[in-house]
Write a structure and sequence with these properties.
The protein is of the alpha/beta class. The chain contains ten helices and eight strands. The chain has a single domain, classed as Ureohydrolase domain (Arginase, Chain A). It has an eight-stranded parallel β-sheet with strand order 2-1-3-8-7-4-5-6, with helices on both faces.
Length: 324
């Protein structure tokens, strides 16, 4: 891409502590800006945690992630990918949530992403709790005209049926709803890193009965990253696929700033390695969720989160380039 407008501002030109923060120091384009017609990958904040059942805080995640993303540079040291050279990228701002009405917010998010999809923009989102993924998936599935595959990095399946007497929309239920609604193809869904004490295991049984490939943490460490990601690529095939990355996939020693941490997880490097091995997958969107600044006093979780966002952006940019 030749248009310098879409390039991130270099720390060689403006100190990283200066200027108004945007994702990756990219231009911020509000809805209606004519330049959005040139955007290929849009970074979007979803500042909402209305689906949280215990420790709130991810509503503040996008703002902190934006701030910390100003520290990123443009070339991936392992893959040598420069996503900003492969695709026009921009910060598209935040979805405007209704903090007191869950149903209204789900509708607002879906409408926002339907508009993004209609513009032909591939979304890279920052949450927000994990329920935010459901309306995004609804919009993208409709845009692509078929159920999507998904690579899901998480300590939890998020395949629970309901909470507190039958309430069906929480950050523990989005992918059960997505499968029930035909938004996700369960036979092209792989969940990686599942661990921690369970209520009863019904979520895992339900998912496996429908063809979801669930890789618990014990299998993850037994097989190793390379083999796990080979399996993941086999599950999703070459059709359109979404990547959803919950920061609690990573061990809380590295990412304590999240609402539902689970010990015994991967390291920061193993998480980076997992995402890098998605290169070549037909990704049509992604998110990074559950960063909770109130539980992240050092800011290390957000810094790790934006690094994972950058790794995913590299894969998205390669996928987009391959589809041209």
């Amino acid at each position: 891409m030749s248009d310098p407008f879409f390039h991130p501002i270099s720390g060689q030109d403006l100190p990283r502590f200066a200027g108004v923060p945007s994702f990756m120091r990219l231009p911020h384009l509000a809805p209606g800006d004519a330049r959005r017609t040139e955007v290929e990958i849009g970074l979007i904040g979803v500042p909402w945690d209305g689906g949280t059942t215990n420790r709130p805080g991810p509503r503040h995640g996008p703002r902190q992630l934006r701030d910390y993303s100003t520290m990123m540079r443009r070339v991936n040291p392992a893959s040598k990918i420069d996503p900003f050279a492969l695709a026009n990228c921009a910060d598209l701002g935040d979805v405007n949530p209704n903090p007191v009405d869950l149903d209204d917010t789900l509708g607002r998010i879906e409408t926002f992403y339907a508009g993004v999809a209609a513009e032909g923009i591939v979304p890279m989102s920052a949450g927000g709790d994990h329920l935010t993924s459901l309306p995004v998936l609804r919009a993208l599935s409709k845009a692509h005209g078929s159920p999507l595959g998904m690579v899901h990095f998480d300590a939890h399946t998020d395949l629970y049926d309901s909470y507190f007497g039958g309430y069906r929309y929480t950050h523990g239920t989005p992918f059960r709803r997505a499968i029930e609604e035909g938004v996700l193809d369960p036979e092209r869904v792989v969940q990686i890193g599942i661990r921690g004490p369970m209520y009863d295991g019904e979520d895992i049984e339900w998912g496996r009965a429908r063809g979801v490939r669930i890789i618990p943490i014990e299998e993850f460490f037994e097989l190793g990253v390379v083999e796990v990601m080979r399996i993941a690529r086999e599950v999703i095939g070459n059709r359109p696929t979404y990547c959803s990355f919950d920061i609690d996939f990573i061990d809380p020693a590295y990412a304590p700033g999240t609402g539902t941490p689970e010990v015994g997880g991967p390291t920061s490097y193993q998480a980076q390695h997992c995402v890098r091995l998605l290169e070549g997958a037909n990704l049509i969107g992604a998110d990074l969720v559950e960063v909770s600044p109130p539980f992240d006093p050092s800011g290390g979780t957000a810094w790790l989160g934006v690094n994972i966002m950058f790794e995913i952006m590299c894969v998205l940019a390669k996928a987009l380039d391959a589809r041209r």
